[in-house]
Amino acid sequence: MKVLLVVNPAASSVTARRRVAVEDILSAGHDLSVVVTKGRDHATELARRAAAEGVEVVAVLGGDGTINEAANGLACSATALAALPGGSTSVFARTLGHTNDVVTAARELAAALDVGSRRRMGLGKANGRRYLFNLGVGFDAEVVAHVEGGSLKSRFGQAAFVYSSVVTWLSQKDPTMPHLTVKVAGDENPHPGSFVLCLNTNPYTYLGPRPLNVAPGTGFDTGLAVAVLRDVRLATLAKTMRSVLGDGHDLGRQPGVTVLTDVETVTITGEDPIPYQVDGEYLGRADAVEVSREADCLEVVVP
């Protein structure tokens, strides 16, 4: 099988030793080529070119942002995406069922390639950018922006997100007031919020080994789940964390939290241009974020 391995050498869990091990494992039974990303959005270009050249599988050794870029290059093509856990959290690879260890996951991937284990999945889309598992608007995106604004992530891994969450919360002008408006197709009532998630699957992310469950039952073949936190008061955030660290089924029953499932389109606006992120990659600010779902548009290799 013709396989292209896209490597982000700057990803948190990618070392020279692990990269060599992954290459040895995947090249043992397949025609493997290896390319290295040189900057943001390069993985999209590499994946799109591979699909045009008839490569059967594009495997990505990098974080969720690099995997997201590759997915955007492969969507609606015949080339399959394979994800290896090369980042600090590696949400997508773990959601697919991979072990959160690069070398072990490479062995799982090689076995999946040998037996042709694949599935089709839908993607979310935000202002034209496809995403694999989550879109965050407002507080969540501000946290991601803070992490990306320095060297915290490469130095401290997941602890950087905890630190940035505290710094971001302290910088809020008024954590008690919503500044976003969420309009869901088919729902006549707009929802005010300060923190919005549009999930293509569950979990939302991981905290160490623990999944944060926002919308159990949402998956790659269902509609989107939309979670709206009206405010980011400590009481609201504490109740939310308690729920998502459990099974997440009672999140929508928490005061100040709305959870809608099987959603196809959403429009999010704000008093000022609003920050948003997809799959942990900050995309900046926009006057509005138009969210939709593309069904059955990506082939994925699964362990």
Question: What does this protein look like?
Answer:
The protein is α+β, with helices and mostly antiparallel strands and 303 residues long. The protein has two domains: 115 residues, 3-Layer(aba) Sandwich (Rossmann fold), CATH 3.40.50.10330; 168 residues, Tumour Suppressor Smad4, CATH 2.60.200. Strands 5, 6, 7, 8, 9, 10, 13, 14, 15 and 16 form a ten-stranded antiparallel beta sheet that branches. Strands 2-1-3-4 form a four-stranded parallel beta sheet, sandwiched between helices. It has a two-stranded antiparallel sheet with strand order 11-12. Strand 8 and strand 9 form a beta hairpin. The radius of gyration is 19 Å and the shape is globular.
Task: Describe the structure concisely for a colleague.
Helix content is 30%, strand content 36%. The chain is of the alpha+beta class and 303 residues long.
